[in-house]
Amino acid sequence: MWLLIIFCLLVGVIIGFHVPLLIPVFFAKYLSVAILASLDSLFGGIRAYLDGEFDNTVLLTGFISNSLLAAGLAYIGDQLGVALYVAAVFAFGVRIFQNLAIIRRSLIYRLGHRSSGAMLDH
Amino acid sequence: MKKAYLSMALVSLLLGIMFSIQYRSSITAGNILSRDQWAEMTIEMERLHNQHDALLNELTSLRNKIAVNGAEAQNAALHELLDKADIASGLTPVSGSGIVVILNDKVRESPEDLGYTIQYWNLMMIINELKSGGAEAISLNGERLVATSGIGESGGRLTVNGQMVQAPYRISVIGPPETLTGALRLKGGEVEALQAIGAEITIQPANDLHLPAYRESKHFIYAKPLKK
Predict the structure, then answer these.
(1) Residue B1, pLDDT score
(2) Where do the structural domains in chain B lie, given as residue ranges?
(3) Which of B147, B141, B68 is nearest to B100 (CA)?
(4) What is the pLDDT of residues A17-29, one digit of tens each?
(5) B217 closest CA partner among B158, B150, B161
(6) Nearest CA in chain A to B3
(7) Residue B29: which of A25, A46, A59 has the nearest Cβ?
(8) What is the pTM of this model?
(9) Which residues of chain B, if any, have pLDDT below 50?
């Protein structure tokens, strides 16, 4: 799982550096929201994996719907002259940190469990 | 098992791609303006475009004017030029607002007191200060100062335009009164120095000064105008 994520990230970075495609400044806002959405999905997926309730469909649909809603908010905000995309950034940010906290606890719990188990073996 | 995490792989792949593309974009767009600056620049550009158009219109209308009544316009321009030249040369009397500066020698009050007699260079310094203070026309004791005027001394008397003048010296200046007064009252200026010695100097603003014309009609023998 971890190796898969890191490997795919690296592959993505390599592809991104070799694709002759640049994002105009105008779309930087949309891309930032999309990056946040995928980060959110990634952390959500890891959390679900650690909780043992990982589901491909949930993750993919969540990713797509979140991205669409965030991009839509950014677009509407642009039309209205209000920075609505901040709402998406805020929501994703909060969720990323929450998920990170849960992942951290889960990992600590596991490691602690394992090491105490090892001590029991002795 | 691997297949189960296909979505994770996809999302992280996408994340990597977006990361690197955004990184490259922001690196190459380092000196590109932000959105707000861009909007400002657009407004500024439009304003300048409008200004440019307005100026072009003015230019064409002025060109048309010249073309339509060329002789008339030329006449008016010549008159304007002549008026300017008249004022500058001092060949016509002029009137206007300005200041009057009156300078007087320091009288001897006691046998030990040497007193002070105003010298021609004192007047030249003051007139120079007035010129840099925006003076448009100057006369000294009724002698109009022009480009060829000289202030000198002969036989212990001061001369202006070759005419003898004597104290009190009355300098009438047409120009901006505040600026002229300020130019004279500058720290370290000639007025301060003369007042320190004891010469009497008064500076008054005047609303309606009349300056005489330059008396001699000068014949220019050596100087010829260059063709423009």
Answers:
(1) 44
(2) 2-89, 94-211
(3) B141
(4) 888 877 777 777 7
(5) B161
(6) A56
(7) A25
(8) 0.44
(9) 1-2
